[in-house]
Amino acid sequence: MQNATLALIVTVVFDPSPFSSSIGLGAASRADWAIAGLLTVAFAVLAHRIRGVTTSGAIAGAISCFVLYQGGGLSAFVALITVFALAWLTTRLGYQRKQMLGTAERRDGRKGSQVLANLGVATACAAISLFGHSRPVFLLAMAAALSEAAADTTSSEVGQAFGKTARLVTTWSPVTPGTDGAVSLAGTIAGAIAAGLVTFVCILGGLLPRRWLPICVLSAILGMFLDSFLGAWLERRRLINNDLVNFLGTLMAALAAFWLASIA
């Protein structure tokens, strides 16, 4: 079933002819479609090959990758690669310690629900930006959501690997690293750096103007802290799961970017 779904994605990506008449694809658009398709398949295959994602994760990542490229071009694709690279590298830091804590990710990578939880908001913003309505602001929201996804994953993985003291964000009481809602100095600093790196990639590629750098980074950090609050407040009580927490964190980053841009 999963192989059939992947084959369908590849077919749709490389053969847009059934949709050309309905959405008005010209020759240039078809070329963009083909480039997006090549990059999408290459990204999905590589991510799966190095065990960054499962098969379902590769399919979800392929869909997100294709839409992100269509909405934000090569810069959005590079930003996505940066997010993935940060997640892949930091997940493997201190893996033995994470296994002892019981917080280590599965060795076969993140599954589809995890990928969509982290990339769903950015993908939606990229899709909406294609219609041209407030396109720059939706690209800002997309970049903020990607930056938050990188910040959240990096802060969590680095905190579990190297954080000596972790505290529950709601009560500031000491807890074991990896506890839902726990924060550490090492993890927070690493998360902020990750947010800045993804934002810098977006600016370097021309996706965002330089004046939006602080907005994007601040929005990502706000989303990262909301993720911790939701983890401490709701996830610890088993009212919501980690996927929903991650999704809401990226949504917060996107909404914060919209608001900050409107008042800047």
State the distance separating the first and last CA atoms: 48 Å
Number of domains: 1
Give average pLDDT, whole number.
Answer: 88
> What series of H and E elements makes up the topology?
HHHHHHHEEEHHH
| Derived structural class | mainly alpha
Strand order of the largest sheet: 2-1-3
C-alpha Rg, in Å?
18 Å
Q: Strand tally, please?
A: 3
The low-pLDDT segments are 14-28
User: Strand portion, in percent?
Assistant: under 5%
Count of alpha/pi helices: 10
**What proportion of the residues is helical, as a percent range?**
over 70%
Which oligomeric state applies? single chain
Task: Give a structural overview.
- It is a single chain.
- 75% of the residues lie in helices and 3% in strands.
- With 264 residues, the protein is mainly α.
- The chain has one domain.
- β1 and β2 form a beta hairpin.
- About 6% of the residues have low confidence.
Describe the structure using short key phrases.
globular
